[in-house]
Amino acid sequence: MAVSLILGGARSGKSKWAEKTALLTGLTVNYVATAPYIEGDVDWQKRIALHQSQRPKIWETIEEPLAIQALCAADTERQCILVDCLSLWLSNLIFAEMDVLAEIDTFLAALKMSKHEVILVSNELGLGLVPETKLGRDFRDAQGLLNQKVAQVADVVTLLVAGLPMNLK
Q1: Are 132 and 34 in contact (CB under 8 A)?
Q2: To the nearest 5 percent, what fractions of the chain are helix, strand and coil?
Q3: Beta bridge partners of 161
Q4: Which sequence positions are flagged as catalytic?
Q5: ∠ at Cα 60 (63, 72), nearest 5°?
Q6: Could you tell me the pTM of the whole model?
Q7: Which of 33, 38, 130, 151 is packed most tightly, with the most Cβ within 10 A?
Q8: Where are the domains of the chain?
Q9: CATH 3.40.50.300 for domain 2-167
């Protein structure tokens, strides 16, 4: 089992790097998409369609906005699980009014038990402006905590800046 965390800002190349990393494993890839479908948001739907079109057709896509823990811990044949992305998963938890800290702890336990290659994509938000709203600040703080905790468990941590990888761990 190996866990890789790929961090970066918006449009930094995180997803492309994660997909390239998944291909290099040579394993069957299950792509876990955490983005919720938003009715009427044409721009969001275009972004999702673009991501879908860039994935190899042989990959299985699992759309799961909340319960990613079970997918990482599943006792199935060894495979690669690519989760894109933890930031959307976190926002889904917040908007579903779930216990974020408990969900993060459950997720970390699942990662530690996983028999799979797990590749996680997450946004690095701590390099930007301080959000104006309490919700924005709470989200940024929770994202920072999630990234730190996952980085502690991860075997490999890579930061993407302008499409270029910087190996942190």
Answers
A1: no
A2: 45, 20, 35
A3: 164
A4: 51
A5: 65
A6: 0.91
A7: 33
A8: 2-167
A9: yes
